């Protein structure tokens, strides 16, 4: 991930200003009451050992923290307990294997599964901050970020928070991203900050990794939204069924009180049938559903449509964001909020006011005669949806797409990315996008191989800046140039390390250099 120095410095701390205090004995009681798999395997020998924060990485430890030591890929976190103590940690939460590695004089609470225990422990420390907020969990392969911002916009951005892949917003403050869904201690601390700031609503992107690793345990979302399921994370989930099962965790009684499911896809219909919480379905494609969008108007500068509720309401919504998929995203967002008590009419103004979401079909005017767009799409279905939206609403002129694929990731999607891009692009400029230690030429070759069967003109330029410049130079006034893949990212990961990079800035530079 990019360094925090590449982002604005937050005005708020990522932990609340109020100091909270708990003890190992208190946490042991909470765990006994909440989660069988996290019950302590022994009574803590130092039940009065106190802590005022929780951290899962030694670099995050602050004086007075409880350090959570779990088994990692290469080593057990307990091996770093002494470093955590030097950073100020006062106690450790770990398992039996970790306990055997701890210094004898360091107070510890030993549990069966510290990853499952840390969510409830963090919620207990901060006095269950999620209970003071209206919480919306969002999962799906694409659309999570945009939908989170729609939730916040509908409720008023100044009174809402978002937590996801482009970072965390707390009203008008911003924290740089670390993970799509933060580890449980950071998540609960952010909830406590939002409660302290008087926010009313938070929308959280719940990734499949987070759901499997227990990052959202310790509280229950008021409503969970399932958007879609595409091809992604095959390096982590062996099959699509495994990926679906991870996403389905959100719509269980432990994670959400109610589910909103988009049934405009096969996996959505499967989710609606298999979810173990009450479900309300949504459709913008004419499928039978509790909530529907009709009279849809798609334009280059936005969309308009009518939402039909199960109660017979018919409310017209407008948005400045384009694309049919954003109609689905808005429908899920407003249905979720309405189902937990918000008047549908009250959500119209906020949705209409949201100008854009960073790196999501984001248009830029740098004085160029053609249309310039930056989008984060780096998965096959997301590329399909983004380019389809551009082509549908801007039929005149050529579509020139700049596309690369990440290294060190699922290689099976690269050909699919090329195939989907070439279905809509008149010109496909294949370049590099975070190759890491993989051979960039091999990555590009796989994308090109997927695109070969199309009628698109394919150009290969490894240097990303030169690729963007080539796309800009060939663009005519009626054309659209879209740079795919990075969106909000502020880095370019190469074999020699990360370099500072932001696609909108580079796009502006190459346009101004015409």
UniProtKB/TrEMBL annotation:
Question: InterPro entries from the entry?
Answer: Mur-like_cat_sf, Mur_ligase_C, Mur_ligase_C_dom_sf, Mur_ligase_cen, Mur_ligase_N, MurE/MurF_N, UDP-N-AcMur-Glu-dNH2Pim_ligase
Q: In which pathway does it act?
A: Cell wall biogenesis; peptidoglycan biosynthesis
Entry-annotated residues carrying N6-carboxylysine: 247
Annotated GO biological processes are: cell division; cell wall organization; peptidoglycan biosynthetic process; regulation of cell shape
What region holds the Mur ligase central domain?
138-335
User: Pfam families, alphabetically?
Assistant: Mur_ligase, Mur_ligase_C, Mur_ligase_M
Cofactors needed by this protein, per the record, are: Mg(2+)
Query: Would the keyword Nucleotide-binding turn up in this protein's UniProt record?
Result: yes
Which key words are in the record? ATP-binding, Cell cycle, Cell division, Cell shape, Cell wall biogenesis/degradation, Cytoplasm, Ligase, Magnesium, Nucleotide-binding, Peptidoglycan synthesis
Chain ranges of the Mur ligase N-terminal catalytic domain = 52-105
EC number(s) on file: 6.3.2.-
**Major place of localization?**
cytoplasm
MF terms in GO: acid-amino acid ligase activity; ATP binding; magnesium ion binding
- List residues binding UDP-N-acetyl-alpha-D-muramoyl-L-alanyl-D-glutamate: 58, 180-181, 207, 215
What Gene3D superfamilies does the entry give? Mur ligase, C-terminal domain (3.90.190.20), Mur-like, catalytic domain (3.40.1190.10), MurE/MurF, N-terminal domain (3.40.1390.10)
Where ATP binds, per the record, is at: 140-146
Gene Ontology cellular-component terms for this entry are: cytoplasm
Stretches assigned to the Mur ligase C-terminal domain: 359-487
Where does this polypeptide localize?
A: Cytoplasm
**Family membership:** Belongs to the MurCDEF family. MurE subfamily.
* HAMAP family hit by this protein: MurE
Describe the task this protein carries out. Catalyzes the addition of an amino acid to the nucleotide precursor UDP-N-acetylmuramoyl-L-alanyl-D-glutamate (UMAG) in the biosynthesis of bacterial cell-wall peptidoglycan.
Its recorded name reads UDP-N-acetylmuramyl-tripeptide synthetase
Organism (species): Microbacterium keratanolyticum
Tell me the name of the encoding gene.
Answer: murE
């Amino acid at each position: 991930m990019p360094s925090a120095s590449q982002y604005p410095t937050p005005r708020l701390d990522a932990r609340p200003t109020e100091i909270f205090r708990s003890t190992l004995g208190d946490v042991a009681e909470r765990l006994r009451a909440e989660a069988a798999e996290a019950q302590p395997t022994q009574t803590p020998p130092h039940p009065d050992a106190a802590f005022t924060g929780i951290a899962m990485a030694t670099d995050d430890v602050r004086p007075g923290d409880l350090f959570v030591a779990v088994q990692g890929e290469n080593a057990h976190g307990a091996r770093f307990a002494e470093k955590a103590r030097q950073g100020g940690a006062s106690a450790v939460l770990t398992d039996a294997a970790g306990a055997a590695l701890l210094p004898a004089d360091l107070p510890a609470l030993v549990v069966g599964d510290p990853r499952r225990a840390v969510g409830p422990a963090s919620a207990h420390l901060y006095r269950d901050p999620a209970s003071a907020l209206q919480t919306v969990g969002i999962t799906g392969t694409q659309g999570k970020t945009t939908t989170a911002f729609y939730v916040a916009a509908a409720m008023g951005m100044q009174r809402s928070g978002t937590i996801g892949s482009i970072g965390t917003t707390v009203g008008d403050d911003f924290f740089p991203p670390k993970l799509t869904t933060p580890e449980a201690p950071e998540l609960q601390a952010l909830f406590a900050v939002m409660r302290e700031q008087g926010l009313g609503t938070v929308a959280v992107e719940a990734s499949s990794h987070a759901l499997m690793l227990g990052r959202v345990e310790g509280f229950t979302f008021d409503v969970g939204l399932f958007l879609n399921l595409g091809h992604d994370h095959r390096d982590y989930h062996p099959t699509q069924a495994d990926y679906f099962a991870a996403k389905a965790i959100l719509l269980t009684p432990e994670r959400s009180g109610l589910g909103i499911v988009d049934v405009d896809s096969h996996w959505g219909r499967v989710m609606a049938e298999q979810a173990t919480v009450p479900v309300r379905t949504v459709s913008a494609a004419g499928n039978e559903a509790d909530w529907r969008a009709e009279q849809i108007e798609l334009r280059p500068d936005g969309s308009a449509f009518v939402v039909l509720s199960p109660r017979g309401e018919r409310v017209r919504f407008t948005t400045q964001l384009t694309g049919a998929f954003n109609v689905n995203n808005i429908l899920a967002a407003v249905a979720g909020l309405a189902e937990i008590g918000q008047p549908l009419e009250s959500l119209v103004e906020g949705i209409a006011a949201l100008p854009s979401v960073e790196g999501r079909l984001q248009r830029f005017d740098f004085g160029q005669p053609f249309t310039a767009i930056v989008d984060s799409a780096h998965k096959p279905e997301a590329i399909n949806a983004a380019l389809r939206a551009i082509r549908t609403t801007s039929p005149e002129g050529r579509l020139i797409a700049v596309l690369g694929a990440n290294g060190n990731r699922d290689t099976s999607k690269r050909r699919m990315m090329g195939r989907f891009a070439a279905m809509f692009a008149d010109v496909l400029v294949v370049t590099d996008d975070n190759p890491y230690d993989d051979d960039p030429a091999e990555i590009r070759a796989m994308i090109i191989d997927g695109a070969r069967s199309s009628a698109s003109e394919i150009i290969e330029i490894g240097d990303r800046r030169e690729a963007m410049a080539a796309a800009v130079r060939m663009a005519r006034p009626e054309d659209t140039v879209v740079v795919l893949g990075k969106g909000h990212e502020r880095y370019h990961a190469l074999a020699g390390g990360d370099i500072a990079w932001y696609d909108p800035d580079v796009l502006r530079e190459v346009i101004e250099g015409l």
